Amino acid sequence: MSKQSTAIGHTIASICIGWALAWGWMAHEAQAQQPPCQSNERFIVYCVRPSETNPQITRFDEQHFVMMRRGATDRNEPLLVFMPGTNGKPPGAIEFLRTAAENGYRVISLEYNDDTSVAVYCPINGGPPCSARFRNMRIYGNSTLDPNIDNTHVEAITERMYALLRWLDRTYPEEKWSRFYDQQGMVWDQIALAGQSQGAGMAAFIGKQKLVNRVILFSSPWDFYLGPSRERILAPWLAWPMTTPPERWYAGYNQREATADLLQRAYAMLQIPPDHIRIFSQLLPDAIPGRGNPYHTQGVHNPIYKPEWVFFLTGR
Questions:
Q1: In the 8-state DSSP scheme, what is residue 77?
Q2: How far apart are CA 142 and CA 146, in angstroms?
Q3: Phi-psi bin for 197: left (phi > 0), alpha (psi -120 to 50), beta?
Q4: 173: domain range?
Q5: Residue 144: what pLDDT?
Q6: Assigned domain for 118 exists
């Protein structure tokens, strides 16, 4: 066989491997997106509508997803709250959530108002303050930005978390969910925050303001506004002082994402230690049918990256 034929064979093999990885992940993801809301021999699982936890919640009422290892009530395990990306629904990244439960976390995948994202709204609305105002509205419900994308206080992220934790404690008192909240709200140093895309931006914004157990970011935030020459300028809040210290922050993105350059700059502005950042780069095809930015969700969904997930969750 000629060298040219060998090279062609290697190229075809590489393409086939890439497509196999991609299609295997997509099939795995499609199956994983619909896990039964029932416990098994390894995990206790609950699915709870937000309106069950607070009847004043009327929108974005898909089920929260809750998972914990059997016997976890006997351990001092932290809580991981995961927030999906725009238009995502819990559980979302189910394999990542299982990995978190396997590595010593209780897990909540949170249903929240995630239809319009900062990245869509703010570059053309409001200038430099827009991103912080938007995230304040979504997280705390303490401001109004636009009547078309507004949310009430009880439907904000922190209030949804608080209502769910109280519901879990009332319903399953033996599981000691009260460790994660008090009369003032969440006990943040017992809570790790993670998210993908819009959800990761919410996690980062809270981590800037609260002393949380850990922050894990997948492919966000890249909040920006447009400058005089239409250049993309990162939002000022990314440079705010950090309440959660840098050594508790972890982040990753795919090297072929459409916003990889902004993510690199944003993670530097957030002062995430370089050795806590992973650039996902496993062999993948140039495109996946039906996906405009196929690499944006790879880091949190593709189980090929489980070693990186374990590092984010444990530091090891």
A1: P
A2: 13
A3: left
A4: 31-314
A5: 78
A6: yes
DSSP string of 109-170, one letter each residue = EPP---SS-HHHHGGGSSSTTHHHHHHHHHHH------TTT---STTSHHHHHHHHHHHHHH
Separation CA 93–CA 97 (nearest Å): 6
What share of the chain has pLDDT > 70, as a percent? 85
Instruction: Quick: pLDDT tens for 62-79.
Output: 999 999 999 877 678 999
Q: Using DSSP, state whether 195 is helix, strand or coil.
A: strand
Whole-angstrom distance, CA of residue 93 vs CA of residue 300: 6
HSE-up (13 A, CA, CB side) for residue 94: 18
DSSP SS3 for 91: coil
Look up the pTM and report it.
0.87
Query: Is the Cβ–Cβ distance between 43 and 17 less than 8 Å?
Result: no
- Residues 263-280 have a mean pLDDT of 98
Do 213 and 248 meet the contact criterion of CB atoms below 8 Å apart?
yes
**Is 303 within a domain?**
yes
Q: Measured between alpha carbons, how far is 247 from 122 in angstroms, rounded to an integer? A: 29
Helices assigned H by DSSP within the chain: 3-32, 50-53, 94-102, 118-121, 130-140, 157-171, 198-209, 260-269, 298-301, 306-314
- pLDDT tens for 80-132 read 999 999 999 999 999 999 999 999 999 999 999 998 889 889 998 878 999 99
In a domain, 21, yes or no: no
Q: Would 16 be classed as within a structural domain?
A: no
Q: Which amino acid is at 25?
A: W
176: CATH: 3.40.50.1820
